[in-house]
Specification:
The chain has 386 residues and is α+β, with helices and mostly antiparallel strands. The chain has 15 helices and 16 strands. Strand 1, helix 1 (16-23) and strand 2 form a beta-alpha-beta unit. Helix 1 packs across helix 12 (296-304). The relative contact order is 0.11.
Length: 386
């Protein structure tokens, strides 16, 4: 079996995916923007072939790399990256080379807010009211003077070109400054973000799942320059578990990790927020492992290699990611934290520079079977000096 892996070197811990594949006899062919000598020796030894491109967003160069692999190694069977920016490139490669997995048309719901909302509706999961708007009259008809509302490009990623509309003046300002493409308008939601995360097998069965509770959404973390933290739940709330499984089925997620976000709103109910066809960001795959004492890198590799997926696991711990930023002083030093919490701190490492605004400069992973104790560790790590 052969698999083309886009960006096998970044983020660094994702190199464990191709290394796990190699242990099952899969020929892994890596495409990256780095020369061979910059890849870690353990990754280089796991790759049967490596092709450097100027940038993974360069479709022509990436397809040239795939043609090179097919010519020199033979046809390949899968394409993977586990990263949001390259999901569309994965689909293009599958379509050009007739490889198993979602093609560009299958991934449209990840790009278009309106189509993602339809997936939630097909899954019978409550979601914020929303509609595509082209004119200010359409907006007024939808709003009916019930502010706040949220407006964003129907196609787009991240927080750019998004607006919270609180008044007629805000609405007029938006239409005087908007771009020419279509926008999606929806009711404004607030609440606590809870995720349903996991991995599916070749038939789309969920073989691993967990849930995380977040301190804030990334837009607010960046806007307020906060320390981000989030933790796993040992018991997934029943309504979240059932809604998450229905979304996985409606989205036809196979051989993939997923990260589905919901708002837990004021009345305690759930409203669906977004679907991601990848693992959660940051160090969350490590959190899967520390929370359950498993190896999800190996689990995924087993599925891709056609072996029976491991299905037995226990959520033994709550595991949390906690960030620190260099632009502030903290009350407790790292040695003091380690002296106080000992083995509860399972990892401390610098974060990737591209993630500093969201994930902070330094990330900690902590775990405990007791949520009160876990939250004590979170509070101590982020507590700032007076």
């Amino acid at each position: 079996m052969r698999l083309v892996y886009l960006s096998p070197h970044y983020p660094r811990h994702f190199s464990q995916f191709p290394q796990s594949l190699a242990r099952y006899g899969v020929q892994v062919l890596g495409v990256s923007d780095q020369p061979d000598e910059c890849l870690e020796p353990s990754l280089r030894s796991a790759l049967a072939g490596h092709y450097r491109v100027d940038g993974l967003e360069n479709r022509e160069q990436v397809l040239t790399a795939c043609h090179f692999f097919r010519e020199h190694f033979g046809p390949f069977d899968r394409v993977e990256s586990h990263l949001e920016p390259w999901l569309e490139m994965e689909g293009v490669i599958r379509e050009v080379f007739q490889v198993t997995g979602p093609k560009p048309a299958d991934l449209e719901y990840l790009k278009r807010k309106s189509l993602m909302k339809k997936v939630f509706q097909d899954a019978r999961v409550p979601v914020a009211r929303g509609t595509i708007v082209e004119t200010i009259e359409q907006c007024r008809s939808f709003i009916e003077r019930r502010y706040h509302v949220f407006i964003k490009p129907d196609i787009g990623v991240g927080a750019s070109d998004t607006y919270t509309i609180r008044s007629d003046d805000d609405l007029n300002y938006f239409f005087n400054n908007r771009s020419s493409y279509s926008y999606f308008l929806e009711e404004y939601l607030s609440g606590v973000i809870e995720s349903f995360d996991g991995l599916t097998d070749r038939e789309g069965n969920v073989v691993f799942c967990t849930s995380h509770v977040f301190s804030n959404d990334i837009h607010q973390v960046v806007k307020k320059n906060e320390n981000l933290w989030y933790y796993s739940q040992r018991e997934i709330p029943i309504d979240l578990h059932e809604a998450g499984k229905r979304v996985v089925k409606a989205a036809n997620i196979r051989e993939k990790f997923f990260h589905i976000e919901f708002f837990r709103v004021a009345d305690g109910s759930l409203k669906a927020l977004e679907i991601n066809l990848r693992p959660p960001g940051g160090l969350t795959t490590h959190m899967f492992n520390f929370a359950c004492d498993i190896d999800v890198y190996d689990w995924w590799a087993r599925i891709i290699a056609g072996q029976s997926p491991q299905q037995s696991f226990d959520r033994r711990y709550h595991c949390a990611f906690v960030s620190r930023k260099h632009d502030r002083g903290y009350r407790h030093s790292v040695p003091d934290l380690r002296s106080r919490f000992g083995s509860g701190i399972v990892l401390e490492q610098p974060m990737n520079p591209i993630e500093f605004a969201v994930m902070g400069n330094v990330g900690f992973l902590v775990r405990s079977p007791d949520l009160v104790h876990l939250r004590e560790m979170i509070s101590s790590i982020i507590e700032e000096a007076a």
